[in-house]
Amino acid sequence: MTTSGYIVYLFPPAIEALGAPALPLMQKGEGEGAEHFFVCKEVDTAGALVELTIEGKDANGQVTDIELMIPMNMVRMIVSAHGDGAGFGFRVRTPEEMATAPANLSL
Fold this sequence. Notes:
- By secondary structure, this protein is mainly beta.
- It has one domain (6-100).
- It is 12% helix and 36% strand.
- It is built from 2 helices and 7 strands; from the N terminus they run βαββββββα.
- The chain has helices at residues 12-18, 95-100; strands spanning 6-10, 27-28, 36-40, 42-44, 49-57, 63-71, 75-80.
- The strands form 2 sheets. A 4-stranded antiparallel sheet has the order 2-3-1-7. A 3-stranded antiparallel sheet has the order 4-5-6, with no helix packed on it.
- The two termini are 29 Å apart.
- This is PilZ domain-containing protein.
């Protein structure tokens, strides 16, 4: 099964500004100091507003897509979460890639 999506972190004042209506759409990490974040199926950053597509449930318990638009300046970080190895982010590099990497690159 392929799982993919994005994790979107906001600046703390943005979470406070969005308030109670946004909290049911967010998840919270575990442990002390854990932060709230959105888990999104899609993220569109093509304008002044960031469009987040979040999987939710309607009043009847049916799965539905929720589209949330927030100002770009609220977003602190977007992380790609692709279980199939696609997308951007950290990955294991092959020995061939390591051999051709610049000497000053230590990733």
